[in-house]
Design a protein that fits this description.
about 450 residues; alpha+beta; 3 domains; 5-stranded mixed beta sheet
């Protein structure tokens, strides 16, 4: 009974250790309440798991078969809790679970090797072997904890592998692929493996981590190339927006100069008509003069030239396409930091353009765009709504994805902005309306 209780306790700790290692890659992105909820589930499940393991040992006996059953199936509830709390991250969960399984095999191999080399042969078989290997596994975990924290906190692959659906899943299942063959082969085998088995497992783990590091290196390199290419594209887009804004300003200024130039001639002609008593002609001339002078000026949305240019160009684009658009901007706080304006102008250009493109595909009676942007120290709040009846494909990060060539730049810009400024992004499509909400600290 004492051995059963001890083994149930040890295996519960091992499963909790696995949950902790799988938690570390997501730790920084989780909100405090999400962390508390995840660990509440884990801590509440631990006594349940202990009871299940203990009943299993008491019912079926403490042997290699029950020991392996717990290792093969005991992790499932803990992973389920992570999936419930950390949503829309199935690809990353798969990858992290595979890497944690590789690490589990490494610690198991190390602990088994220590038993084979240090303990007397009589203590390396049967129940004694199971007990000592469980204890040594926990000891190895504690000793390697600083290294484990460093590895798993920096474990998640670059976004290149999670943005492309096919390439992302191929990379995500890579660690599990390294684990499945040896784990399946161990189902019917005893715990006492030969030195050849141990050497082969060390080599398997070595090549698994080597391929992982190489894939990360290549992924980061390609990600930099994509980022540089995207930067060039959005800078070109921003330059085009500024040029369009300048053209609009020049056109308005030219209209005003022409009207002023003609004002003297209007006045002379008006005086002549008054002297001749031609009142109707005077009235018609005044009305024509009003039409010339009352050219609508460009709307000034805010003091930032970059943000104002982006809004002016794309709001004007919506109006030219007969798309009703409402734009409310409040960035007048004198203490507002201006460092964000460049990136904000690019973001606004992309998301408004996306809304305009989507609205063009709608019937004329179902076209609307609402934009709201405000700064209330120290937080920015951005909201964009537009009508779109066609169902969008949503990616693992909760944002729409498209495989259509030449499209998707707007969402890339949004993801880059959110990552750079640690913005909270909420996107939804409901009842034919697409809503985007963003919050970040200035």
């Amino acid at each position: 009974m004492i051995f059963d209780v001890g083994m149930a306790t040890g295996l519960t700790l091992i499963q909790t250790i696995g949950a902790y290692l799988r938690y570390l890659p997501f730790e920084e992105k989780l909100l405090p309440e999400e962390r508390k909820r995840l660990w509440k589930y884990i801590l509440l499940w631990m006594p349940v798991a202990f009871t299940i393991y203990l009943v299993l040992f008491l019912h079926e006996g403490l042997d290699v078969t029950t020991y392996k059953k717990i290792h093969y199936f005991g992790w499932i509830p803990f992973v389920t809790f992570s999936l419930i709390v950390i949503r829309n991250e199935g690809m990353r969960h798969t990858f992290v679970a595979g890497m944690q399984a590789l690490w589990f095999m490494l610690l198991q191999t190390v602990s088994g090797t220590l038993i084979l080399t240090i303990l007397p042969p009589s203590l390396g078989t049967g129940v004694n072997r199971i007990m000592f290997q469980t204890a040594l596994y926990i000891v190895c975990f504690v000793v390697a904890l600083p290294l484990e924290q460093r590895i798993f906190r920096n474990l998640l692959p670059p976004k290149l592998f999670t943005g492309n659906h096919l390439a992302g899943w191929c990379f995500a299942i890579l660690p599990l692929g390294f684990c499945i063959s040896p784990l399946v082969g161990l189902i019917e085998r005893p715990l006492m493996y030969t030195w050849t088995d141990r050497i082969l497992r060390f080599f398997l783990l070595f090549w698994g981590f080597t391929i992982y590091r190489y894939a990360l290196f290549m992924g980061q390199r390609m990600e930099r190339m994509q980022r540089d290419q995207h930067t060039n594209e959005i800078l070109t887009q921003q330059l085009r927006a500024l040029e369009d804004h300048a053209s609009l300003q020049n056109a308005r200024a030219e209209d005003v100069r022409r009207a002023r130039h003609d004002l003297r001639h209007y006045n002379r002609l008006l005086a002549t008509l008054i002297d001749a008593g031609k009142i109707e002609e005077v009235r018609a001339l005044i009305e024509a003069q009003d039409r010339e002078l009352l050219v609508p000026p460009l709307t000034a949305y805010c003091e930032s030239p970059l943000v104002n240019a982006a809004l002016t160009v794309y709001v004007q684009q919506a109006k030219e396409d007969h798309i009703p658009i409402s734009c409310k901007v409040k960035l007048d706080d004198p203490g507002r930091p201006r460092e964000v304006d460049n990136d904000l102008a690019i973001l606004l250009s992309n998301i408004i353009e996306n809304a305009v493109i989507a609205s063009r595909k709608q019937p004329e009676n179902r076209r609307e765009i609402y934009l709201s942007l405000s700064y209330i120290a120290p937080q920015y709040v951005l909201s964009l709504e537009n009508r779109y009846d066609t169902q969008l494909d949503i990616g693992d990060d909760g944002l729409p994805v498209t495989s259509e060539r030449g499209h998707g730049t707007g969402m890339v810009s949004l993801r880059n902005f959110a990552e750079k400024y640690n913005a909270d992004v909420d996107f939804e499509q409901k009842d034919g309306t697409v809503r985007l909400m963003m919050y970040w600290l200035g």
